[in-house]
């Protein structure tokens, strides 16, 4: 018993981890299910049908492709706009910095449903047609703040003397930016872009309000919760989890190697 | 989310230090800011203005809406839907407290005890993020299904008797009860609690723990006097990152709850997208925004002064 008392933090932590991972395991297991009816909530029989035919459900892969497309463009938009703001905020002093900082902070401090609803009133008042473009505009908007925060954190830890050194060596502003500033800021920009992609790809609430009849992947899952959930949804969920583990683990390995190499040097 | 402001800079590193920067150079930050800030003004600030105007309009979908400064909408909305507001705050608050309670040990484990397993544990915390949260929330429907192993086990140890007595569950059911909704909310926002906690715990020098031990502090005292105060920034940003989205969420209440567990997000969603009563929906949305902003401001003030000492 004293062992349990000494390791209470470890036990509690691992229980929380189990709570976090449990749904992913259920999703994985049920991707091999062969349900009797439309709903895939009860285990019946092992089958690999869904894995062999992941696009076998109407509109599923179409919605997936649409979500990827939107996430890609929203990431590009939010990363470019956000990185520019972050550079301006860290590297320059100017009036209205406080106001701009709060403007960046507010979208993150507001329940998503408020933003979603207000955007919808704008689009309704302008008579805009809801669909691809309104979703893209909305996603770029709410991803922007997160990119700014991620890039800002990285740029703030950069030594400005590196850029001064480059200028002392007669590098022009463009050359300094491309050869010195950008490479050092790259991990922050990459982190911001990854965050934006994940946020946009998985967004439901803002998309729910501003998509009209356009069906993104989360919208498809939402609809299927009412009409019947195909096993293919679990297949795609499992595949996403696997890809994420690979990407995150790969990133860790690369950064570990870099650290080791830096130590050897 | 960083609540802190950027520290003031030493002489603008952007410009050459010796002579006065040219007009062109001084305009650089504004050109950098312009596109992004414009985007936020047009698609974040302007929509809020439109929503404010919508909330004081009257009329119907057929005949169109008109601004009549009908502030009574706010009062009507609040008096009709205050149970949903209270429920949202209660559920979101409970979920936030549970996230803190569950998340702290895991963040602590990763920061101080994991050793070479640290990266693996971090991957396991982040990776679920990437599976669509709707799919994972639907998985809870399977886990909490009536008569499933989890519910049976909870019933066998008498847990459900206690929660039923508290009004959180009904009989031997978990699905479609408040407990299911809070379970889903806690689950969905847990990573938002763990990551900031981990970041602030990781910054603590382990030698401080040793020093506390050398001064004959017991582990519990060390935690209360050293670790917890130093991790307060993580606690504050973690609770905010959990509470704010949880208070407006309608996915968990919809998928795991029943009509008796509707949160204010569900009401706003159905008023906007199904009932099409835009003024009421806009008013509800503004009331929610006001409640959240006030709660957050008060909380940051308190956490920033008294509790941090």
Characterise the protein shown here.
Chain A: Keywords: Cell membrane, Membrane, Transmembrane, Transmembrane helix, Transport. Chain A: Residues 64-254 form the ABC transmembrane type-1 domain. Chain A: InterPro entries: Bact_Polyamine_Transport, MetI-like, MetI-like_sf. Chain A: It is found in: Cell membrane. The complex is a heterodimer of chains A (265) and B (309). Chain A is mainly alpha-helical and 265 residues long. Helix content of chain A is 77%, strand content 0%. The mean pLDDT of chain A is 90. Chain B is mainly alpha-helical and 309 residues long. Chain B folds into two domains: 25-55; 83-303, Orthogonal Bundle (MetI-like fold). Chain B has helices at 23-55, 72-113, 118-126, 133-143, 149-156, 159-165, 178-202, 206-214, 219-230, 232-248, 251-256, 264-275, 278-305, and strands spanning 57-60, 64-67. In chain B, strand 1 (57-60) and strand 2 form a beta hairpin. In chain B, helix 10 (232-248) packs antiparallel against helix 13. Chain B is globular and about 75 Å long. The model of chain B is unreliable at 1-12 and 14-18 (pLDDT under 50). The interface between A and B is large, with 97 and 95 residues.
């Amino acid at each position: 018993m004293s062992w349990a008392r000494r390791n209470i933090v470890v036990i509690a932590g691992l229980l929380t981890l189990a709570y976090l991972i449990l749904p992913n395991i259920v999703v994985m297991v049920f991707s091999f299910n062969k349900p009797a009816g439309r709903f895939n909530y009860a285990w019946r029989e092992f089958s690999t049908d869904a894995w062999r035919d992941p696009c076998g459900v109407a509109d599923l892969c179409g919605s997936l492709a649409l979500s990827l497309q939107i996430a890609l463009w929203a990431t590009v938009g939010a990363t470019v706009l956000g990185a520019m703001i972050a550079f301006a905020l860290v590297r320059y002093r100017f009036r209205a910095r406080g106001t701009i900082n709060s403007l960046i902070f507010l979208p993150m401090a507001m329940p998503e449903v408020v933003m979603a609803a207000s955007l919808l009133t704008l689009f309704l008042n302008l008579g805009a047609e809801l669909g691809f473009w309104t979703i893209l505009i909305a996603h770029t908007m709410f991803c922007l703040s997160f990119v700014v925060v991620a890039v800002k954190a990285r740029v703030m830890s950069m030594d400005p003397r590196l850029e001064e050194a480059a200028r002392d060596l007669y590098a022009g502003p463009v050359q300094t930016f491309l050869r010195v500033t950008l490479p050092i800021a790259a991990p922050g920009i990459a982190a911001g872009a990854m965050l934006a992609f994940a946020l946009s790809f998985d967004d439901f609430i803002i998309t729910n309000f501003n998509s009209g009849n356009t069906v993104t992947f989360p919208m498809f899952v939402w609809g299927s919760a009412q009409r019947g959930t195909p096993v293919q949804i679990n297949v795609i969920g499992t595949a996403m989890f696997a890809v994420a583990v690979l990407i995150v683990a790969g990133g860790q390995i690369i950064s570990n190697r870099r650290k080791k190499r830096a130590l050897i040097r | 989310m960083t609540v802190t402001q950027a520290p003031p800079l030493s002489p603008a590193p952007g410009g050459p230090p010796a002579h006065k920067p040219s007009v062109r150079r001084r305009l650089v930050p504004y050109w950098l800011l312009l596109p992004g800030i414009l985007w936020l003004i047009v698609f974040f600030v302007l929509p809020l203005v439109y929503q404010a105007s919508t909330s004081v309009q009257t009329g119907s979908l057929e005949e169109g809406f008109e601004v009549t400064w009908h502030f009574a909408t706010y009062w009507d909305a609040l008096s009709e839907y205050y149970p949903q507001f209270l429920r949202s705050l209660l559920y979101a608050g409970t979920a936030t407290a549970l996230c803190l309670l569950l998340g702290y040990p895991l963040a602590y484990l990763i920061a101080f005890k994991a050793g070479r397993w640290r990266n693996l544990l971090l991957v396991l915390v982040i990776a679920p993020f990437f599976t669509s949260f709707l799919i994972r929330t639907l998985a809870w429907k399977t886990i909490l299904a009536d008569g499933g192993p989890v519910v049976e086990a909870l019933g066998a140890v008498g847990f459900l008797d206690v929660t039923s007595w508290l009004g959180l569950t009904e009989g031997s059911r978990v699905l479609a009860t408040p407990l299911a909704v809070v379970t889903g909310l806690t689950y969905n926002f847990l990573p938002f609690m763990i990551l900031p906690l981990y970041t602030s715990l990781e910054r603590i020098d382990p030698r401080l723990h040793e020093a506390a031990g050398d001064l004959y502090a017991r582990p519990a005292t060390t935690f209360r006097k050293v670790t917890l105060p130093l991790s307060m920034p993580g606690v504050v940003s973690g609770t905010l990152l959990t509470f704010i989205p949880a208070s407006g969420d309608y996915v968990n209440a919809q998928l795991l709850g029943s009509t008796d567990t509707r949160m204010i997000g569900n009401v706003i969603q159905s008023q906007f997208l199904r009932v099409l009563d835009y003024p009421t929906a806009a008013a509800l949305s503004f009331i929610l925004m006001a409640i959240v902003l006030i709660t957050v401001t008060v909380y940051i003030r308190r956490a920033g002064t008294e509790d941090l000492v």
